[in-house]
Write a structure and sequence with these properties.
Layout: H1 33-37, H2 39-43, H3 55-84, H4 88-112, H5 117-121, H6 136-145, H7 160-171, H8 175-185, H9 192-195, H10 207-218, H11 224-255, H12 267-273, H13 280-288
Bound molecules: protoporphyrin IX containing FE and N'-Formylkynurenine.
């Protein structure tokens, strides 16, 4: 019997066999989709600790977030390298992608929001003291962009490999440091104490830096690349802030004002994090422009 499509009513046609047009159907000794993507490994990592229906949603939500964070870090590191080499147009493309990744993470909250407090209490106890607070990729993103709080190293002290990773990040100039070094190379008067700062320390708001960004924003045509870089950074922070806001709102909706499993006050802690500014001068200049 052939599998040629029959003319006439599709209801009576034999099911179409894509092999007739050459679809590869045999994978003995050839690399398949699942082989390339290690699908077996990924799909065997959803191990519920309870029989609760919604625990699967919770696990997959976090695992997919960690995958997107992995890509965000990949792009962030490449963007930083491109800026350091003054290849800014290349960096713009990667920074735009990072913002889209955060948009993706922001949209994902819509799925998690379908979990009610009643649903969550069916498995919350099983989580013990684990919490997103201990996500090393999240901390690495914060450190990479410039939010360097050394206190956040502590939950990783039991893992020498992760501590080394985070420490290595703290020794590198952040995305914001690289942006400012780029401005200095372009001839803008970035203060020396900024260019020679102790990279491990948290960023401290600097009036001289704000003045440099003001110069850029007062005459964008004259400083087009710096202006474009600034707006890409603001765009990224905008999406990052939305992630934090979605997180705290979802948390309040699900656990109210209960303490977090990670030991913080929960919503009170997350609200405090809403005040963190990654690139403060880029926001402040808008008031003084
Ligand atoms: C029902 C869902 C969720 C609840 C109830 C929740 C709750 C919390 C709470 C209470 C904290 C504060 C730390 C603590 O004491 O535990 C926290 C931190 C955190 N959570 Fe969630 N979370 C949820 C979903 C998520 C998701 C989907 C992610 C994505 C990866 C995530 C990532 C984080 C991160 C990165 C932190 C640290 C934030 C910071 O230090 O600024 N959480 N979460
Ligand atoms: N901190 C959350 C627990 C929690 O959300 C969580 C636990 C384990 C793995 C990821 C988590 N997500 C984000 O914090 C709570 O207090 O319920």
């Amino acid at each position: 019997m052939t599998n040629d499509p029959k003319p006439g009513c599709p209801m009576h046609a034999a099911p179409y066999n894509p092999a007739t047009e050459g679809a590869q159907m045999s994978f003995d000794g050839r690399m398949s989709y699942g082989d390339y993507l290690h699908i077996d490994q990924i799909l065997s990592a959803q191990r519920q600790l309870t029989p609760a229906h919604d625990e699967m949603l919770f696990i997959i939500q976090h695992q997919t977030s960690e995958l997107w964070m992995k890509l965000a870090l990949h792009e962030l590191n490449a963007a930083r390298q491109a800026i350091a080499a003054s290849r800014t147009p290349e960096a713009f493309k990667m920074l735009a992608r990072i913002s889209r990744i955060f948009e993706q993470l922001n949209n994902a909250w819509d799925v998690l929001r379908t979990m009610t407090p009643s649903d969550y209490t069916t498995f919350r106890e099983g989580l013990g003291q684990s919490s997103g607070f201990q996500s090393w990729q999240y901390r690495l993103i914060e450190y990479a962009v410039g939010n360097r709080n050394l206190a956040m190293l502590k939950p990783h002290a039991h893992r020498a490999d992760l501590t080394a990773l985070l420490e290595a990040e703290l020794a590198r100039p952040s995305l914001y440091d690289e942006a400012l070094r780029h401005l200095a190379r372009a001839g803008l008067p970035v203060p020396d104490d900024v260019l020679n700062r102790d990279l491990r320390q948290p960023w401290v708001v600097h009036e001289g830096v704000q003045r440099v960004w003001e110069t850029v924003y007062r005459d964008p045509a004259q400083h087009w690349q710096a202006y474009e870089l600034a707006e890409k950074l603001v765009d990224f922070e905008d999406y990052f802030r939305r992630w934090r806001f979605n997180h705290v709102t979802t948390v309040e909706r699900v656990i109210g004002l209960k303490r977090g499993t990670g030991g913080t006050g929960g919503v009170s802690y997350l609200r405090r994090m809403l005040d963190v500014e990654l690139f403060p001068e880029l926001w402040h200049l808008r008031t003084t422009l």
